[in-house]
Amino acid sequence: MANRNSVILSPSLLSSDFSRLGEELAQLESAGLDWVHWDVMDGSFVPNITFGPPVIGQCRKRSGLFFDVHLMIDDPGRYVAAFAEAGADLLCVHAEAETHLERTVSEIARLGMRPAVALNPHTPLSVVEYLLPQLHMVLIMSVNPGFGGQSFIPFCIDKVRKLDLMIQRAGADTLIQVDGGVTPDNIAELRRAGADVFVSGSAFFGHPPYAERHQAFMAAAAPVPQPSERE
Ligand code: DX5
Ligand code: ZN
Q1: 132 with 166: CB under 8 angstroms?
Q2: 27 lines ligand 1 (CB under 6 A)
Q3: Long-range pairs of 43-46 with CB within 8 A, sequence gap ≥ 24
Q4: Between 225 and 89, the higher pLDDT residue
Q5: Is residue 202 within 6 Å of ligand 1 at its C-beta?
Q6: What kind and span of H or E run contains 66?
């Protein structure tokens, strides 16, 4: 399973061909990807609408990928059981959308999924501080959520750095995911800042073949040397 020494690319299906979702998933798997990112949008928390548990549940039957499900919906606690039933492996809720965040995080774990919390670009890190021991991952939004293909917001690099320190200070092993405007040009800086999981939509799906594109991201990320490899 993923840990803080891993570098993981989680392609966002938002930029895939929705009319061929099953084939897209099969191609990701045969290209050597392990994770896939599902952007669930409700037209209220964000100004766009995508798909929900029925679509994910159907695709679950055809894919062995790790389903990284990012909920951009109001009051996500209402749908935790539905996404568990659909077969999400990780369920990520926005702190801004959930009044009772601890309860929802606990419920996600209780139903056998890995809990994660997403923060919009302007949301302070302090909202997740007390939850870190319970969280598999924190998602740092590096664009305002709702659409693919937007430009990366530069201050998010500093935010990743600060979250990395916060995680270390807490003695937690929470992963840091960055989502929005990630490309082979900025992945190395994000990795150095402490990010572990990189979501990419337009910069991934717009450049097939997927195996080569995956390798381009991984090579650019330049994994941090292990302690035994350091001087
Ligand atoms: C934005 C979504 C992202 C998006 C990323 O609301 O959460 O996952 O699809 O797309 P790119 O990589 O094109 O910014
Ligand atoms: Zn996303």
Answers
A1: yes
A2: no
A3: 44/73, 44/74, 45/72, 45/73, 45/74, 45/94, 45/96, 45/97, 45/145, 46/72, 46/145, 46/146
A4: 89
A5: yes
A6: strand 66-72
Percent of the chain with pLDDT over 90: 93
Residue 198: which of 140, 148, 133 has the closest Cα? 140
146 Cα–ligand 2 center, Å:
8
Cα angle: 197, vertex 99, 158; to 5 degrees: 35
Q: Which two tokens stand for residue 23?
A: 């084939």
Residue-level pLDDT at 94: 99
* pTM, to two decimals: 0.95
- Percentage, residues of the chain above pLDDT 70: 96
- Distance between CA atoms of 120 and 180, rounded to whole angstroms? 11
Domains present along the chain, CATH in parentheses? 8-223 (3.20.20.70)
pLDDT bracket for residue 223 (50, 70, 90): low
Beta strand spans in 73-185 (E): 90-94, 114-119, 137-141, 175-179
147 CA to centre of ligand 2 in angstroms: 9
| Residue from 24, 39, 48, 207 whose mutation best tests the ligand 1 pocket (most atoms within 8 A of CB) | 39
Question: Please, which residues have CB within 8 angstroms of residue 149's CB and are 6 or more apart in sequence?
Answer: 15, 201, 202
